[in-house]
Amino acid sequence: MEAMRVEITPGRNGEPSAKLVRGTKSVTLHSLSPWQEAERLAEKISPAIETVVVAGFGMGYLAEYLLQQTSHRVLVYDHEPSVIEAAKVARNLNSVLSSPRIAVVTGEPQELTRYLAENDVRELSFSIHRAYHSLYPEIYGNLEGLLAAHLAKRQINRATLKRFQKTWLKNIVKNAPAYFTFPGMGDIRHPFSGKPAVVVGAGPSLGRNIGVLKDVQDRACVIATDTALPMLCENGVKADFVVSVDPQDRNTLFLLYSRCRDAVLVLEGAGSFVSLAKYNPERTVLAGSIFPLYEALSVLWGDRGSLRSGGSVSTTAFDLARQLGCSPIVMVGQDLAYTGRATHFRGNVLEDFLYWRIDRLRTWESYSAKTLVQADSIEIAAWDGGKVRTDRKFLTFLDWFIREIRETNVPVINATEGGAHIEGAAHERLADCAAGGFPQPFDKAVRLERRAVDESAYRATIKQVLRTVESLQPLCRKALAASGRASAAFARRQDLHPLFREMGAFDRALLVAIREGTPVGRFLELAMQDSIDAIMRQVESPAVDEALLSSWSELYREALEALARVRHLLRKA
Asked: What's the pLDDT score for residue 114?
């Protein structure tokens, strides 16, 4: 990045401005009346949101105005600390920058999102300095997308938990017995340490690399996501590993559709049980899971190793390449964007299941366009130096790759030839990577070691959890019945305490079971997250009103259904 120079310039009423000079280009930071300018900018910021990100400190007028005239907390981001130092000297801003309501972040944009995550900032407003955007578009042009991704990440995680918690619970319980006989991450014997890895995703650009990948497959470790495996097999590319983390059973279709059963399947602990049951058992490895339920149960079969994940199967495949000791790590099909207005390469098995819905009124193009609109797309820097559209979900994956590449001690090359520019990775064509550093063909045989572990402790644990669940069910039924009578009693101004005692008996028993930190609590936590959150809100609620009372019946109905679901799974186990 070209060096920047700060030149202080005079302004009206003793309000200095500054000029930023980068190479042959320069911008003036403020108008002739910077304090009035700050006031106009502040009017656009919602007073209801506590944290305001001021991106581009300039001479500090906006940050100072917000501290003096509002109750906002101010988070300053400036990629270049020398600007802040110059402002401190020119305007004597030590008192402003020492305020308990201000924090300053400098460096790469990811330092800002890291700060937001570490300090649990859940909502924010932001103001991006126009002059900074003009001089450093590669930084401040993408900042809005990164902030949007941060805000979306919590919503995405919450929505994902709500959508898949039942499926994750089912898979963990059904996959658990396999951990006593199947190999784990530490049981893989392979020749790939120090050898190149090509991590293959199912992005729209994958087709651009298939031919080269076929030519170089004997010279690198090929790690495919389950979504990419069918296209590899169709084009004569043999994957050494295929990674699957999605809990949905439909992802098994990618494994079956490919007709390839020689690649080693690395399945995350909460991944689809159907994938475990249908894929070649002699070529399957079970990795650990991030869920507390898995961690509570894993002490019964021992460490099986785990893979880091950023929410996408491609991030998990990337970490597998790191754990295998591969170098360099080359990524293809990792668009993280809507290259050519598409979500996946043409010919992906997902498309086959959409064709039956397509007719003259519902074309494939209209489906793709609808996907873009619904995804709330954002324009970011592209692999080839131009621009490409992405969405908040893809941005969370992109942010993960940027963070993890920074912590990866081997070269990382983005050879996708499309999609997003990934900061920290070199951007080269796959053919150039192979010509410049891939070894001659080598023996890529992979051997999996197996071990057997006694299951008696696991069976005893399952029985203990089942007993607890069965003891909670009658308490929950009583709480449900009491909640149904509470609204009528409240309307008649009757004493609610007897009903509260019946509901409280279940609440206390449930929370005690969860707080013990045993497998019992972890089962209930995953099965009943919404109910637990609602109960905790009740505990914190300052007053009883009709709205609160009307929500209780639905709460206990959901809790009863969750208990029945857990009991059914445990009895089958």
From this structure: 83
Between CA 347 and CA 341 the distance in angstroms is 15
The pLDDT value recorded for residue 375 is 45
Neighbouring CB atoms inside 10 A of 470's CB total 14
For residue 162, what pLDDT is reported? Answer: 59
If asked whether residues 390 and 430 sit together in one domain, one would say yes
Is there a single domain that holds both residue 493 and residue 463?
A: yes
Residue 337: other Cβ atoms inside 10 A: 31
DSSP letter at 329? E
Say if residues 20 and 56 touch (Cβ distance below 8 Å). Answer: no
Give the residue among 162, 174, 164 at the shortest CA–CA distance from 568: 174
Nearest alpha-carbon partner for 304 in 176, 173, 192: 176
Residue 118, domain CATH: 3.40.50
Whether residue 373 sits in one domain with residue 328: yes
Paired tokens of 348? 């992906």
Alpha helices in 92-221 (DSSP H): 94-97, 109-118, 130-135, 137-140, 143-175, 210-216
Span 172-184, pLDDT tens digits: 889 999 999 999 9
Q: Are residues 427 and 469 in the same domain?
A: no
Residues with pLDDT less than 50, the chain: 156, 350-375, 542
Instruction: Return the amino acid letter for 391.
Output: D
What is the C-alpha to C-alpha distance for residues 335 and 416, in angstroms, rounded to an integer? 7
Q: What is the pLDDT of residues 383-394, one digit of tens each?
A: 998 888 888 788
Give a yes or no: residue 375 inside a domain. yes
Give pLDDT, residue 354. 40
Q: Please provide the size of the chain in residues.
A: 573
Same domain membership, residue 410 and residue 329: yes
Q: Are residues 163 and 119 in the same domain?
A: no
d(CA 419, CA 417): 7
The confidence score (pLDDT) of residue 546 equals 63
Tell whether 122 and 177 lie within a shared domain: no
24, 34, 487 from 5: Cα distances, Å: 11, 20, 68
The sign of the dihedral angle between the CA atoms of 93, 95, 97, 102 is negative
End of a domain among 90, 116, 141?
141
Number of domains in the chain: 3
In a domain, 146, yes or no: no
pLDDT of 197: 97
> Three-state DSSP class for 224?
strand
